[in-house]
Write a structure and sequence with these properties.
3% strand, extended, 432 residues, 17 helices, mainly alpha
C-alpha cells in the first residue's frame, strides 16, 4: 500500500496523542478521592493509620476526629477512638501520656464489652509505667501503675495480655519494695528499730517476690531478737527457711532457730520450684559498669524483678487482715505481740489489729483514768457537765451581774491608767 508524504504528516500527530493518552491512563493516584469512594470512613481511617506510622500524630488525630464527627455510626468509630489514644501514647512526654490515660479510660467507658477494652486498660498502666521514677524518688506514678495493672488482672484474668501485665506488675512492685527497703535499711543501720520494723513488716507481707525479701525477713528477726522477743523473731527466721530455701541466709536462719529452740520448718515445694526457675533464667546482674551508668538513666532498674510467681493483687489502700502495727508507749523498746512487760517504764509493742476495729483508726493510744493521769479538777469539771442542774443554778443570774459589774470597774480602771500613761508620754515629748 502506497502512503503519500501528506498522509504521513497527518498520521504522526494521531499516533503521538494516542501514546500520551495511554501513558496518562496508566498513572495511579496515590491519594484516593474521598468523595468518589464507596467507603469514605474507611479511607479516612487508613489515611490516619498511615500518618501514625510516619509519626504525623497531630495530622492523624485531626483525620480521626473528622471521621468520628462526620460518620458517628461508622464501624470504625471504636478503632478511631483507640487510635487517638495510641497517638498520644506514642507521642510521649508528660502531656502526651496524661492525655493518653484520659483517652484510654474514655474508651473503656464507652466500649467496655469490646476485646480492645483489655488492651486499653493495659495501656493505662503502661502510661504510668513509662513515667516510673527510681526507688528513691517520687512513688506516685509507681502506685498508679500498680493499681491499674491490678485492675487489669482482676477484670481480664483470661486475656492473652495477662502474662505481659503480670510481669510489668512484678517490675513495678520490685521498684516500690526497693524504695521501702532502702528507708528501712537506713533506720536499721541508724538504730531506730521501731521505724525500721514498721516498714519491714509492710514490705515482707506485701511484696513476697521482692528480690531481697529474705534479707528483709532476716532484719526483722534481728529487730525482734534485740527486743528480747524470741518467739516473734523465730517466725521470720522460719519464713526464710520455708519460703526462701535457696537463699544464702538459710543456714544462718536455721542456726538462729536451733538457738531459740524452735524446730526448723521444711522448705515449701512451690517456693523451691519458683526459686529454681528464677535461677535458670538469664538476667543481667548489676555490675560496676552497670551501677555507674545507672546514674545516667532516668528510669529505674528492674533487672532483678521476679519472672515467676503471682504478684500481689491487693491494693495498697486496703488494710490486711491482722495487720501488725508498732505502737510506742515509752522509752524502753520492746517489739512483740503482747502488752508491756514489767512495771518499770513503758515499752514498744506490736499490736494485732483487725480491719474496721476501733484501734485501727485511733491515732493516739487510750489514756488510763487513774490518780496520776486524771487530775481531780478535770473529773469535777466533767461531772459538772454531766450532772443535772441543782439549786445553785438559780443564783447564776445574780453572779453574772456581779461579774459584769466587776469587769466594768476593772475596764474603767485600765482606761484611766492608759490615759494617764499617754499624758506622761506627751509630757516627755512636750515639756510644757
Amino acid at each position: 500500500m502506497f502512503v503519500t508524504r501528506s498522509e504521513k504528516f497527518m498520521v504522526l500527530p494521531l499516533v503521538v496523542s494516542l501514546a500520551l493518552a495511554g501513558c496518562l491512563g496508566r498513572k495511579k493516584n496515590s491519594k484516593p478521592d474521598v468523595g468518589t469512594t464507596a467507603e469514605p470512613d474507611k479511607v479516612l481511617y487508613e489515611r490516619a493509620k498511615e500518618d501514625l506510622r510516619k509519626g504525623h500524630y497531630e495530622v492523624a488525630r485531626l483525620t480521626l476526629q473528622t471521621l468520628m464527627n462526620t460518620y458517628p455510626d461508622s464501624e470504625y468509630l471504636a478503632k478511631a477512638k483507640l487510635a487517638i489514644a495510641d497517638s498520644y501514647f506514642k507521642e510521649g512526654g508528660t502531656s502526651g501520656l496524661t492525655q493518653a490515660v484520659a483517652e484510654y479510660k474514655d474508651f473503656g467507658t464507652f466500649f467496655p464489652f469490646l476485646d480492645e477494652a483489655a488492651y486499653a486498660q493495659m495501656q493505662v498502666g503502661m502510661a504510668h509505667f513509662r513515667r516510673l521514677e527510681k526507688p528513691d524518688r517520687d512513688r506516685s506514678e509507681g502506685r498508679l501503675a500498680e493499681e491499674e495493672f491490678q485492675v487489669f488482672l482482676q477484670k481480664y484474668p483470661q486475656s492473652p495480655l495477662a502474662p505481659q501485665v503480670e510481669q510489668r506488675l512484678r517490675e513495678v512492685q520490685e521498684v516500690l519494695a526497693e524504695g521501702d527497703f532502702r528507708i528501712a535499711h537506713f533506720y536499721y543501720v541508724k538504730g531506730s528499730m521501731r521505724a525500721a520494723g514498721a516498714r519491714l513488716m509492710e514490705l515482707t507481707s506485701r511484696y513476697p517476690l521482692y528480690s531481697q525479701a529474705d534479707k528483709a525477713n532476716w532484719m526483722l528477726g534481728n529487730v525482734f531478737e534485740r527486743a528480747e522477743r524470741g518467739d516473734q523473731a523465730a517466725q521470720f527466721y522460719a519464713r526464710i527457711a520455708r519460703d526462701y530455701p535457696l537463699s544464702p541466709l538459710v543456714d544462718d536462719a536455721k542456726a538462729k532457730l536451733t538457738k531459740l529452740g524452735v524446730p526448723v520448718p521444711p522448705p515449701n515445694p512451690e517456693s523451691l520450684a519458683r526459686m529454681q526457675r528464677e535461677r535458670e533464667m538469664e538476667r543481667q546482674r548489676p555490675g560496676l559498669f552497670r551501677h555507674a551508668t545507672g546514674m545516667l538513666r532516668s528510669g529505674p532498674d528492674v533487672s532483678m524483678a521476679a519472672r515467676t510467681g503471682n504478684p500481689t493483687l491487693t491494693p495498697a489502700s486496703e488494710t490486711y487482715a491482722a495487720t501488725e502495727t508498732l505502737k510506742s508507749t515509752g522509752d524502753k523498746m520492746n517489739l512483740g505481740g503482747g502488752g508491756s512487760r514489767g512495771s518499770g517504764g513503758s515499752t514498744v509493742v506490736v499490736e494485732t489489729v483487725s480491719p474496721g476495729s476501733p484501734t485501727s483508726t485511733a491515732s493516739t493510744p487510750p489514756v488510763r483514768a487513774n490518780s496520776e493521769t486524771a487530775p481531780q479538777a478535770d473529773a469535777s469539771s466533767t461531772a459538772s457537765n454531766v450532772l443535772p442542774a441543782s439549786s445553785d443554778a438559780a443564783k447564776a443570774p445574780e453572779q453574772d451581774k456581779k461579774d459584769a459589774t466587776q469587769n466594768k470597774k476593772e475596764d474603767d480602771k485600765k482606761g484611766k491608767e492608759s490615759s494617764s500613761k499617754k499624758k506622761k508620754g506627751l509630757r516627755k515629748i512636750v515639756p510644757w
